[in-house]
Amino acid sequence: MPGMTSDSGDHSTSVVPISPNPQPTTYPLHHGLKPPIARLSISWARGNTLRVTVLRQPQPSAANGEEEAGGRVLEVKLSDNGDGEIDDAQWRRIAYGSVTPFALLQSRKNSTSTLSKISALDSTEWWQYIMEYSREINSLLGNPKPSPSLAIEDQKTVLKDVQKPTCFKAAWELMEIFYADQHSQAWIPERLLDWLADYDCLFSGTQPTVHSELVNFQKELVTRQAVEDHPKYWEAISSTLAIGWLEIGVKLLRLHGSYDFDQLGSRETENGLVEAVAVLISKMPRLRADLGADKLGECYKNKPDFVKAWEKWRAQITKLDCSAFWLQCEHHQTRDGLKNILQTMLGNSTSLSNATFHWMELYIAHFLYIRPFTAVVLAECSKSFGSWMMAHAAELLTAGNIQAEMLLQKEQFQLGGICIEELNRLVYAQVLSSHALTWQIAPIYLSSCMKQGMGLLETVLSKQALQHDQVLLKSIEICRLYELGTVSSNLMKITAVHDWKHGKKGSGVFWLQQARDEVRLNRIAKHLFDFVGKSLSDDSFKQWEGLIELLGPESGIAGGLEFLNKYREFRRSLQQVHSGTATDAAQRAAEALISLMKNPSTPQRFWLPILHDSLKLFNWAGRPLLNVSQTNVLLNKLQELSMARLRPDFVNADLPPEALNSVRLAIATNLGRAILEE
């Protein structure tokens, strides 16, 4: 069986090797029934879902006349799709949408020869292919859209409401930044800042984050007047600047009470310091390809210019930090808050630690320069995101990284000789194959598995519900695409036998013809021979006449079935003769008789019944319908038949005892008339 390993213990029949010590997984089951529970039934539902039926013991009716439920039917989903953040319908859209980019990338990869693969993987064109693949997959994972903007923007709204992104999209974009996008290597810090701005909210469910703190603080802004008097205000500004959210930091600064018209005269120095810090933040140098119109900072596209601007900017911060104007600021909260902000902008480690909440925010710079090991990334993806991510993310992890590609494609003895890359695709293909709506895209992934893919594909096709015409036709088309002629023939044979046994005789013969199964077609021919009528009045031949007509011109591939087709034409001609039609019809019937008797596929047991049914042709009143040569052919057949009657296995036809003599006499009479005619 495909996938069987040489040393797999009790799991030797598994297509994909299973760990001998699997970790148990607990799924909650809330049925709401009162004990005692009498019976528990578990069966498979659609996809990776179990149907659990919980039944109680019969109980007498309650005093109030209300009867309690006798049972519940529940469904337990076994797959882990990001804690339910993506529903089944969306998962099917992602599954179908990812087929085309995956197949196209595999085709481009396979078109590269082995000798030139290393140089090809380093080429600019290949990197473009990788990014095209990544963007198409990324687009399937959703695009968060902001809520409709208000006509008048609330000055105290610092965070816009957007659709919550998915963990899958966050993980995919993070791998794209580190492994696939060559153009972002020079400005990875900025890419990470943008990434954290989009996905920091995902961490808020399990621990505090800058995003969650801002959400909470934004609620307090509505009721607070002098925000600068509250420590959370300054903490929020420091946190946003620590992770590069400059726009939010400046907006919060300009909510400072010194900007009020009634405060400008008495708090001029204080306002000047706040504005100076806001301007410095707005002028922060940023090393990136471009900067959106709504983004603050000054964009630099090359590192030398950026370094010069960075040193100049830091010098301005240091100069402001040493300014004498701080002594003139009488508002202690403002002075201390702005001083801490300057230390954050200068990169003070203590300030950065106090301004962030979890490791991704604090150590984001560390992750920019140390690329995590590929194996670690794979393990995290497998644990958190399941088989889809594992099957598709490998292309990003190995882009331009020969060592990572060797790791994924190295044959593993403990996996039955397959590599990690093939294992991931096999697992994902099995998930697709388990659902009636996605099984037909599994071959795309199985065909890319060199070791066990085609064997598993044959297993998948053989287990489909072939009694449904659309499933059968799709399976045959898949066999044609992947040159699985034997599998296609077997599917047709299985369908033919099923249809024949369930009374669909015509469909059964059709699929046997498509499969070119001569053995079974000959068995059907023998079966039909037992029912073909011995005379024109027998209704059994009419019963099978439609099936014989279905055999058509292709019946020659089945040997004996060719006789039934020719016999049908002969019976039709003979019927016209008995209906009293003209001599031309009798002549055509005589020619059909000779053709039938000369054909080697005509069974010997039918010679005498055919000749006996043709007595009217031999005794035709007008003129002999058969010439001397044709009559000799029939006499020779009678001689062979007389010799065959001496064999012990000869079976006599169901005819009158004098049938042979009557036929012999009629043919001899026709011979004499033919001689005189000639």
TrEMBL record:
Q: Where is the composition biased (Polar residues)?
A: 1-16
From the UniProt record, list the coiled-coil ranges. none
Highest taxon above the source species:
Eukaryota
Where in the cell does this protein reside? Nucleus, Nuclear pore complex
Endpoints of the signal sequence: none
Q: Where is this region: Disordered?
A: 1-26
The protein's UniProt keywords, in alphabetical order, are:
Membrane, mRNA transport, Nuclear pore complex, Nucleus, Protein transport, Translocation, Transport
Q: Which InterPro entries match?
A: Nucleoporin_Nup85
Could you confirm whether the keyword Protein transport appears in this record? yes
Q: Name one Pfam family in it.
A: Nucleopor_Nup85
Q: How does it assemble?
A: Component of the nuclear pore complex (NPC).
Instruction: State the function annotated in the UniProt record.
Output: Functions as a component of the nuclear pore complex (NPC).
Q: Which family does it belong to?
A: Belongs to the nucleoporin Nup85 family.
What name goes with this protein? Nuclear pore complex protein Nup85
Q: Which organism is it from?
A: Coffea arabica
